[in-house]
Amino acid sequence: MGVVIERVSFRIGGRTILDDVSAAIPTGSVTGLLGPNGAGKSTLLRLIAGLHTPTTGRITLDDAPLATLGRRETARRIALLEQNASPTIDLLVREVVLLGRIPYRTGIFGGFDGAGDLRIVAESLAQVGGTELADRNWGSLSGGEQQRVQIARALAQRPSLLLLDEPTNHLDIGGQLGLLAQVRDLGLTAVLALHDLNLAAAYCDQILLLSDGRLAAAGAPAEVLVPSVIAAVYGVDSFVVPHPRGGHPSLLFAPPAPPVRESG
Amino acid sequence: MRAVTGSAAGRTRPAASARRNARFGLWLALALASLVLVSALAVTIGPAPVSLTDVLGSLAAHLGFPHSGTVPVLTDAIVWQLRLPRVLTAAFVGAGLALSGAVMQSVTRNPLADPYLLGLSSGASLGAVCVVILGVGVALPLAAFAGALAALVATLSIARVGGTITPGRAVLAGLAIAQLGAAGTSFVIFWAAKGDSYREILNWLLGSLAGSSWGTVLIAGSALLLAGTGLVLAASRLDAFAFGDTAAASLGVDVNRTRWALLGLVALLTGAMVAVSGAIGFVGLILPHLVRGLSGPGHRRLLPLVAVSGAVFLVIADTLARTVFDPRELPVGIITALIGVPVFIALIKSRKSGTWV
Question: Based on the number of CB atoms within 10 Å of its own CB, is A249 exposed (0-12), middle (13-18) or buried (19 or more)?
Answer without folding.
Answer: buried
